[in-house]
Each structure stands twice: as structure tokens, then as C-alpha cells.
């Protein structure tokens, strides 16, 4: 298991994009609101960065899948279908 995954969820199940993005938004909110100790702030920041990296990886993979589908398509998407 990667260190990023341990920081992100502490479990064996990979996070889906929506869960990871929601958790990232929560971490950002916590940091913006303030009131955390220095240690808690750093831990939250580390978790947020790991979540941001995971989200970016998932978006890159999704973009690659869409690109491959479009490249293999025989339909000309520039022409109107009707």
C-alpha cells in the first residue's frame, strides 16, 4: 500500500473520485476556517495534498479513456447526427 493511500484513507479500499474530491474539499475547509493546532494543520495539509494528487491521477486516467474511445470511434463527431 502506498503512503499516499495511508494518508488518504488508512484502509485497503481505493477511494472513488467523488469521495476523494469531497474529502479534499473538507480538508480545504478545515484549513481555511483555521483553529487547528500546528500539528493538525500539517496533517490536514498532507492529507489534502495526497487527495489532490489522487484526484489528478483519476482525472488523467479518465481523460486517457475518453481519448482512446474517441480515437477508436468510426463516427465523425463534427457532423450533426440529424
Which terms would index this structure?
single chain; 82 residues; mainly alpha; Helix Hairpins; 71% helix; 0% strand
Q: How would you describe the overall organization of this protein?
A:
The chain is about 70% helix and about 0% strand. The chain has one domain (about 5-70): Helix Hairpins (Orthogonal Bundle). The model has no long low-confidence stretch (mean pLDDT about 85). The N and C termini lie far apart (about 50 Å). With about 80 residues, the chain is an all-alpha fold.
CATH T-level topology:
Helix Hairpins
- Into which percentage range does the β-strand content fall? under 5%
Please give the CATH class: Mainly Alpha
- CA(first)-CA(last) distance: 50 Å
Largest sheet: none
Shape summary: elongated
- Which spans of ≥5 residues are poorly predicted at pLDDT below 50? none
Draw up the topology in text.
Blueprint lengths: L2 H6 L8 H17 L4 H35 L10
Helix pairs in contact: 2-3
What is this entry, summarized?
The protein contains three helices and no strands. With 82 residues, it is an all-alpha fold.
Amino acid at each position: 500500500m502506498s503512503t499516499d493511500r495511508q494518508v488518504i484513507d488508512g484502509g485497503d479500499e481505493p477511494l472513488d473520485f467523488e469521495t476523494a474530491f469531497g474529502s479534499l474539499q473538507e480538508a480545504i475547509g478545515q484549513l481555511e476556517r483555521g483553529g487547528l493546532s500546528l500539528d493538525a494543520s500539517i496533517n490536514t495539509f498532507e492529507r489534502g495534498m495526497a487527495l489532490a494528487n489522487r484526484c489528478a491521477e483519476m482525472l488523467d486516467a479518465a481523460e486517457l479513456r475518453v481519448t482512446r474511445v474517441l480515437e477508436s470511434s468510426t463516427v465523425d463527431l463534427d457532423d450533426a447526427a440529424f
